[in-house]
Amino acid sequence: GQSLEQPSEVTAVEGAIVQINCTYQTSGFYGLSWYQQHDGGAPTFLSYNALDGLEETGRFSSFLSRSDSYGYLLLQELQMKDSASYFCAVRAATSGTYKYIFGTGTRLKVLA
Amino acid sequence: EAQVTQNPRYLITVTGKKLTVTCSQNMNHEYMSWYRQDPGLGLRQIYYSMNVEVTDKGDVPEGYKVSRKEKRNFPLILESPSPNQTSLYFCASSLKFNQPQHFGDGTRLSIL
Questions:
Q1: Region of B42 on the Ramachandran plot (φ > 0 left; ψ -120 to 50 alpha; else beta)
Q2: How many C-beta neighbours within 10 Å does residue A27 have?
Q3: Would the pLDDT of A1 be above 80?
């Protein structure tokens, strides 16, 4: 089957750096995305990796290693507003289907 | 303003009473999806549509129907709702399959 694994919860202090890992098992891998969701809100897109390597967008970076079926989201200079859930998601295109598979989410708590 | 609009935002109904959740986007996006979000399970794709008149099952399609008669609209239909369909539902759209998804604000359904 297709699945993604990520830690359920991570805690860090303001100003620190935190890394959220994601490992996946999918067929027809087409790219790894990251979404942020605040409590009571909708998911919002953060970053996307189709190829191996690091993508940087401001304080957020995302990394992908397709050979290891692994990626991570790196959040730097943590702020209180970064407290949210973070989801990795795989785009999977196989046998004429074009699906998204999401991980179960990592709840990030940022402490003052 | 570019947006994905879902209605209703909240609904409490009873088992067996047909309901439709509407989804509309104003960005001329081709790819649209429906997800359900349950605690501990992340987002699971119910159905998706690559374009007008092209729909396909996601990972949890049982008990749901969709249609895509116009590019902007992608309604989710529960013909005979049951309590196990009580959940938070999100509609999302993207320009193409390999582009970031924009999510609606969500619809919280309670089926008694």
A1: left
A2: 10
A3: no
